Amino acid sequence: MAKHSAQARRTEIVRLATTTGLASVEQLSDELGVTASTIRRDLAKLTAQGKLARTYGGVMSLAHHPEASLRQRLGEAHVAKRDIAQWAAAQIGSGETILLDAGSTTGALADAITASPALTGLTVVTAGISAMGALSDSAGIDVIALGGRLRPLSQAFVGPLAESAVQRLSFDRAFMGADSVHAERGICEADLEQTRLKELMMSRADHIYVLAHAEKLGQSPFHAWAVMPRRWTLVTDDSADPGALQAFRDNDVEVVVAPRRE
């Protein structure tokens, strides 16, 4: 096959991943006539752009479900996220050590924490840049930032360095974000590294809350999943469909509908 320009080659990679369902580095290298290292650089670029998801077996297309950036998600369901964040902040006790997952709703929770003068002596651990920024000037809050590889789309740190840090900590409460959440499958994300980190975070917490507005319930936009622990709480907003909520209750999940705040 004739050599492609970098842009044309990446377009072809997305097309092949879409038509085959799953493409490996070796398959793409043979098909496009370039080295495996070139393909890996292409895949890193396409993954960062949200056009592909890396898997242990290769890559798969996200053409039908592109991952939204954190900037895009900040403009979605603003009132619902505010209500969820306010309820979550009320569960936190002074002196606790809590974990804030990355995401727009957990970012809203960071804002709610800073606005609550009653919360003192907190230790907040987070991998999310938005939460770090919100908490950075808060008196009486000790912020621990998880390092690792930055995912530009989610503005979050992932990878073995973040995982190693989590394994050295424990939390009174973990507040998790999600691209979507399913009653049986768990938390859905665009990237397997995200799901691995979420599972470790939840394994280190006494109380686990998944913060997800109504539009995220029961959806399966990607193929990477975080397996849920035996006990956890779903926190959503008052526009959630009763049938969707019942599916979680049927799977022994505690469901909280955050009250609407004017």
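(the above was protein one; protein two follows)
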Amino acid sequence: MIEEQPIVEIKHLSKFYKMGGETLKALDDVSFSVHHGDFVAIIGPSGSGKSTLMNMIGCLDVPDTGDYHLDGKDVFSLKNKQLADVRNQKIGFIFQSFNLLPKQTAFENVELPLIYRGLSGNERKEIVMSSLKKVGLEDRAHHRPTELSGGQQQRVAIARALAGNPPILLADEPTGALDSKTGAEVMNLMKELNKQGHTIILITHDLDIAKLAKQIIRIHDGRILAEKEAVLL
């Protein structure tokens, strides 16, 4: 039986920063993999390295050492234009602050990455409405962000991430700007999307949120912790 290739395969990533003449190690020999259909939470306190790691996974930054294969591609060998294409086609980003364009409707916000792909108007309309329907907001397609609640704005952001049908949804503190009830609703939606086959990588500092994932990766001082180390923290 042939073992399935991981969609995310990270080996020995390290990242250094210079601050005031001192060298700080943001990531320290990090290795892990994520398979199709996984729901993984990466959890750590402020300064643990989880944001740096998220930027690596999202192809927003490169390490000083290490390898990263995303859906079979050697990410760090790609040129800037190729990296931009990978971000557009392989990763659906979901941010804590939603990152919606305030003057654009929900429809137009979800449509934006599809315009970059050069899809026709009819193709875009079909995909956008399907994505909004997935998050229960097809009836809010022509509302602007200011006319939507925080939870609805995050759902629009999730619909935008889904629109390009990327292999990975990368969520950075997706409930951080929401109250607990709305946050729970968003996490229930994420779990449902995972059941539908979407691979999700969630970045969080909240253990209660992380426990909703199928797998938890703990990071501390730039290192992935072994299970026995994590229990001691």
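Reviewer note on protein two: The first helix runs from residue 50 to 57.
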